[in-house]
Prior knowledge:
This protein is α/β, with parallel strands linked by helices.
Amino acid sequence: MPNLELLNARVIRCTKCPRLVAHRQRVALPSKRPRRFAGWDYWARPVPGFGDPAARLFVLGLAPAAHGGNRTGRIFTGDSSGDWLYEALHRFGFANQPHSRDRHDGLRLLNCYVSAAVRCAPPDNKPALNEFANCRPYLREELRSLRRVRVVVALGRIAFEQYLKACRELDHPRVVPSPRFAHGAVHRLPWGVTLVASYHPSQQNTFTGKLTREMFHAVFRHARELLKAKQG
Protein backbone atom coordinates (compact mmCIF):
# COMPACT_ATOMS: atom_id res chain seq x y z
CA MET A 1 0.00 0.00 0.00
CA PRO A 2 1.64 3.28 -1.08
CA ASN A 3 0.64 5.14 2.12
CA LEU A 4 2.53 2.65 4.29
CA GLU A 5 5.54 2.62 1.98
CA LEU A 6 5.78 6.42 2.15
CA LEU A 7 5.29 6.37 5.91
CA ASN A 8 8.00 3.77 6.43
CA ALA A 9 10.41 5.77 4.27
CA ARG A 10 9.77 8.79 6.55
CA VAL A 11 10.23 6.70 9.67
CA ILE A 12 13.62 5.42 8.51
CA ARG A 13 14.85 8.99 7.91
CA CYS A 14 13.59 10.34 11.25
CA THR A 15 16.01 12.20 13.56
CA LYS A 16 13.48 13.87 15.88
CA CYS A 17 14.97 12.49 19.11
CA PRO A 18 18.68 13.29 19.60
CA ARG A 19 19.04 10.95 22.59
CA LEU A 20 17.69 8.00 20.59
CA VAL A 21 19.76 8.85 17.51
CA ALA A 22 22.91 8.86 19.65
CA HIS A 23 22.03 5.62 21.43
CA ARG A 24 21.05 3.60 18.36
CA GLN A 25 24.33 4.60 16.67
CA ARG A 26 26.46 4.09 19.77
CA VAL A 27 25.30 0.50 20.41
CA ALA A 28 26.08 -0.32 16.76
CA LEU A 29 29.76 0.53 17.21
CA PRO A 30 32.03 -2.54 16.99
CA SER A 31 33.29 -1.86 20.52
CA LYS A 32 29.74 -1.91 21.94
CA ARG A 33 28.38 -5.04 20.24
CA PRO A 34 28.14 -8.48 21.78
CA ARG A 35 30.90 -10.68 20.38
CA ARG A 36 28.39 -12.92 18.57
CA PHE A 37 27.32 -9.95 16.40
CA ALA A 38 30.82 -8.74 15.56
CA GLY A 39 30.38 -9.39 11.83
CA TRP A 40 27.01 -7.67 11.46
CA ASP A 41 26.40 -4.49 9.52
CA TYR A 42 23.99 -2.87 11.98
CA TRP A 43 20.86 -1.13 10.71
CA ALA A 44 21.16 1.58 13.42
CA ARG A 45 18.21 3.60 12.13
CA PRO A 46 14.54 3.85 13.10
CA VAL A 47 12.75 0.55 12.49
CA PRO A 48 9.51 0.73 10.47
CA GLY A 49 6.41 -1.40 10.88
CA PHE A 50 6.22 -4.71 9.04
CA GLY A 51 3.53 -6.95 7.61
CA ASP A 52 0.42 -7.26 5.49
CA PRO A 53 -1.07 -3.92 4.35
CA ALA A 54 -4.51 -5.58 4.35
CA ALA A 55 -4.06 -6.86 7.91
CA ARG A 56 -6.99 -7.36 10.25
CA LEU A 57 -4.66 -8.01 13.21
CA PHE A 58 -2.34 -5.25 14.46
CA VAL A 59 0.36 -6.11 17.03
CA LEU A 60 1.99 -3.22 18.90
CA GLY A 61 5.15 -3.47 20.97
CA LEU A 62 7.27 -0.94 22.83
CA ALA A 63 10.49 -0.31 20.82
CA PRO A 64 13.21 -2.14 18.90
CA ALA A 65 15.88 -3.94 20.91
CA ALA A 66 19.40 -2.51 20.74
CA HIS A 67 20.81 -5.74 19.30
CA GLY A 68 17.54 -7.00 17.81
CA GLY A 69 15.61 -4.68 15.53
CA ASN A 70 18.32 -2.02 15.74
CA ARG A 71 20.73 -4.62 14.36
CA THR A 72 18.54 -6.34 11.79
CA GLY A 73 16.29 -3.47 10.65
CA ARG A 74 13.05 -5.36 11.20
CA ILE A 75 10.78 -5.10 14.19
CA PHE A 76 10.99 -7.99 16.70
CA THR A 77 13.73 -9.62 14.64
CA GLY A 78 16.92 -11.14 15.98
CA ASP A 79 16.06 -11.31 19.70
CA SER A 80 14.23 -13.60 22.11
CA SER A 81 11.06 -11.45 22.16
CA GLY A 82 10.81 -11.89 18.40
CA ASP A 83 11.33 -15.64 18.80
CA TRP A 84 8.28 -15.75 21.04
CA LEU A 85 6.17 -13.44 18.89
CA TYR A 86 6.72 -14.97 15.48
CA GLU A 87 6.45 -18.52 16.81
CA ALA A 88 3.01 -17.61 18.17
CA LEU A 89 1.97 -15.81 14.98
CA HIS A 90 3.00 -18.83 12.91
CA ARG A 91 1.18 -21.25 15.20
CA PHE A 92 -2.09 -19.38 14.69
CA GLY A 93 -1.76 -18.74 10.98
CA PHE A 94 -0.48 -15.16 10.93
CA ALA A 95 3.05 -15.91 9.63
CA ASN A 96 4.53 -18.28 7.06
CA GLN A 97 7.37 -19.38 9.36
CA PRO A 98 8.06 -19.44 13.11
CA HIS A 99 11.38 -17.59 13.14
CA SER A 100 12.60 -14.09 12.30
CA ARG A 101 16.37 -13.77 12.02
CA ASP A 102 17.01 -10.98 9.50
CA ARG A 103 15.23 -8.89 6.86
CA HIS A 104 16.01 -11.42 4.13
CA ASP A 105 14.91 -14.65 5.83
CA GLY A 106 11.68 -15.04 3.83
CA LEU A 107 9.28 -14.19 6.66
CA ARG A 108 5.86 -13.02 5.50
CA LEU A 109 3.00 -11.99 7.75
CA LEU A 110 -0.50 -13.07 6.81
CA ASN A 111 -3.39 -10.79 7.76
CA CYS A 112 -1.13 -9.23 10.42
CA TYR A 113 0.96 -6.08 10.82
CA VAL A 114 3.53 -5.56 13.58
CA SER A 115 4.79 -2.20 14.85
CA ALA A 116 6.13 -0.37 17.89
CA ALA A 117 5.21 2.71 19.89
CA VAL A 118 8.78 4.04 19.53
CA ARG A 119 10.83 3.27 16.42
CA CYS A 120 14.39 3.61 17.79
CA ALA A 121 16.12 1.48 20.40
CA PRO A 122 16.04 3.48 23.68
CA PRO A 123 18.62 3.40 26.49
CA ASP A 124 17.63 0.83 29.14
CA ASN A 125 14.58 0.08 26.97
CA LYS A 126 12.89 3.17 28.46
CA PRO A 127 11.75 5.88 26.01
CA ALA A 128 11.11 9.35 27.43
CA LEU A 129 7.68 10.98 27.30
CA ASN A 130 8.72 13.40 24.55
CA GLU A 131 10.06 10.46 22.51
CA PHE A 132 6.69 8.72 22.68
CA ALA A 133 5.06 11.98 21.60
CA ASN A 134 7.47 12.39 18.69
CA CYS A 135 6.74 8.86 17.44
CA ARG A 136 2.98 8.81 17.95
CA PRO A 137 2.20 10.59 14.63
CA TYR A 138 3.73 7.58 12.86
CA LEU A 139 1.48 5.26 14.83
CA ARG A 140 -1.57 7.39 14.04
CA GLU A 141 -0.75 7.30 10.34
CA GLU A 142 -0.31 3.53 10.46
CA LEU A 143 -3.70 3.13 12.08
CA ARG A 144 -5.30 5.37 9.46
CA SER A 145 -3.68 3.36 6.66
CA LEU A 146 -4.50 -0.08 8.07
CA ARG A 147 -8.22 0.32 7.53
CA ARG A 148 -9.15 -3.36 7.82
CA VAL A 149 -7.74 -3.83 11.35
CA ARG A 150 -10.35 -5.31 13.70
CA VAL A 151 -8.18 -6.75 16.50
CA VAL A 152 -5.21 -5.07 18.19
CA VAL A 153 -2.85 -7.00 20.47
CA ALA A 154 -0.86 -4.65 22.73
CA LEU A 155 2.33 -6.20 24.10
CA GLY A 156 2.79 -4.60 27.49
CA ARG A 157 1.11 -1.82 29.43
CA ILE A 158 2.97 0.97 27.66
CA ALA A 159 1.99 -0.22 24.17
CA PHE A 160 -1.59 -0.59 25.44
CA GLU A 161 -1.62 3.01 26.68
CA GLN A 162 0.09 4.39 23.58
CA TYR A 163 -2.47 2.73 21.31
CA LEU A 164 -5.31 4.35 23.25
CA LYS A 165 -3.58 7.75 23.19
CA ALA A 166 -3.16 7.50 19.42
CA CYS A 167 -6.84 6.64 19.06
CA ARG A 168 -7.86 9.67 21.15
CA GLU A 169 -5.68 11.84 18.90
CA LEU A 170 -7.49 10.32 15.91
CA ASP A 171 -10.75 11.62 17.47
CA HIS A 172 -12.15 8.19 18.21
CA PRO A 173 -14.88 8.28 20.87
CA ARG A 174 -13.58 8.43 24.43
CA VAL A 175 -14.16 5.17 26.28
CA VAL A 176 -15.59 5.52 29.80
CA PRO A 177 -14.31 4.01 31.99
CA SER A 178 -10.94 3.93 30.27
CA PRO A 179 -9.77 0.38 29.43
CA ARG A 180 -7.37 -1.03 32.01
CA PHE A 181 -4.37 -3.19 31.25
CA ALA A 182 -4.23 -6.78 32.48
CA HIS A 183 -2.81 -9.79 30.73
CA GLY A 184 -5.54 -11.38 28.63
CA ALA A 185 -7.96 -8.48 29.10
CA VAL A 186 -10.27 -7.90 26.13
CA HIS A 187 -11.86 -4.50 25.42
CA ARG A 188 -14.42 -3.99 22.64
CA LEU A 189 -13.98 -0.42 21.48
CA PRO A 190 -16.73 1.70 19.90
CA TRP A 191 -14.86 2.19 16.61
CA GLY A 192 -15.14 -1.52 15.79
CA VAL A 193 -11.79 -2.73 17.12
CA THR A 194 -11.22 -5.24 19.91
CA LEU A 195 -8.15 -4.48 22.02
CA VAL A 196 -6.42 -7.49 23.61
CA ALA A 197 -3.75 -6.97 26.26
CA SER A 198 -0.71 -9.19 26.77
CA TYR A 199 2.41 -9.07 28.85
CA HIS A 200 5.39 -8.25 26.64
CA PRO A 201 7.48 -11.34 25.73
CA SER A 202 10.63 -9.74 27.14
CA GLN A 203 13.19 -11.91 28.89
CA GLN A 204 12.25 -10.13 32.12
CA ASN A 205 8.78 -11.69 31.81
CA THR A 206 9.56 -15.01 30.11
CA PHE A 207 12.59 -16.00 32.22
CA THR A 208 10.70 -15.33 35.46
CA GLY A 209 7.58 -17.21 34.37
CA LYS A 210 5.41 -14.11 34.55
CA LEU A 211 4.58 -14.89 30.91
CA THR A 212 4.47 -18.54 29.80
CA ARG A 213 4.11 -19.95 26.29
CA GLU A 214 0.63 -21.15 27.21
CA MET A 215 -0.41 -17.66 28.32
CA PHE A 216 1.07 -16.05 25.21
CA HIS A 217 -0.49 -18.58 22.84
CA ALA A 218 -3.87 -18.03 24.48
CA VAL A 219 -3.72 -14.35 23.47
CA PHE A 220 -3.21 -15.13 19.79
CA ARG A 221 -5.64 -18.03 19.84
CA HIS A 222 -8.25 -15.58 21.08
CA ALA A 223 -7.24 -13.01 18.47
CA ARG A 224 -7.80 -15.64 15.78
CA GLU A 225 -11.20 -16.53 17.24
CA LEU A 226 -12.22 -12.86 17.39
CA LEU A 227 -11.34 -12.37 13.74
CA LYS A 228 -13.31 -15.44 12.74
CA ALA A 229 -16.31 -14.16 14.69
CA LYS A 230 -16.04 -10.72 13.07
CA GLN A 231 -16.17 -12.37 9.63
CA GLY A 232 -19.42 -14.08 10.49
